[in-house]
Amino acid sequence: MTASYREAQASLRRTPRRWLVTGVAGFIGSHLLETLLQLGQHVVGIDNFATGYQRNLADVAARVGPEAYSRFHFAAGDIRDMGACRAALAGVELVLHEAALGSVPRSMVDPLSSHAANVDGFVNIMLAAREAGVRRVVFASSSSVYGDDPSSPKQEGRRGRLLSPYAATKLIDEIYADTFSRSHGIESVGLRYFNVFGPRQDPEGAYAAVIPRWIGQLIAGSDCVVFGDGSASRDFCFVDNVVQANLLAALAPVEQVAEQVFNVACGHSTSLVDLFAAIRGFVAQAQPRAASATLLRQAPRPGDIQHSLADIERVKARLGYEPSFDVVAGLEQTVRWYLEQAGATARGSARQATSEPTREAS
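User: That's the sequence. What structure does it adopt?
Assistant: Structure tokens below.
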């Protein structure tokens, strides 16, 4: 843990703030909630459960305990509704904006829904934050804004042509944030996430991210699908690193966040083939049958980027960010969590089966 992050945590413990976390029942939002509550903060959360889950909030409650969880107020609502945004922001000092429809493939199929959630919802949050006198909004952007830029690693000042409607929505958010800072005086910081992973990430559905999808398939004893030949590489970033970046961005002096957007990643790339081998190895320690699983190759998906690697020098220099977890350490924790969940599900099913009444043959 860096000195900057230790200082930020100590500051929060000394002087608790009131936060809004949008998308609080989602993967990243629930981790932000958990850390804030552990640091003694007061948190309002808003979610419409489009991609979030009540089970994520239940998991947070179990981990932080009833006293800490009592400092959390959940507001069921949709950020596309300005009234819901205004109500959630009453009395809030800092906003961590995670709510979005976050999938490139989904946006290719349904760009209107992605635009409504990611752009209209973002503008609502920004304007409601201004009305409420919020000090700063930290919002989730994406590495997808780099598009087909051939340079590597990706630096904040360079972009290529966008490859998906999802990428377009995130770039539009950055443009609005920059514009609102001058026209409306709203302080904001955009964090360009690179392939975040960790516990609570949804392994189900057509748009599931690759790491939870593969973990779920390997635990189930199945082979895994890769789009392309597996040579594509990503800068995979464990969710605890993202939490660190959000808190540093929220608390940094204004002069340190003047450039407004920062890459959040580990600064190292991993090919999908190597990623699969690492995940398979961790799962196989608990379930040896996973060791024989293979990758089944399918055609690449439209909008996917072949290689993605972040330059994290700006966020390190300006915010004092330093990844606490590399890919291997993050994968070990993530696989352990999914194995625990699978074990709990299996035990629950077994208890239910043994408690079923015996049916007499007719």
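The radius of gyration is 21 Å.
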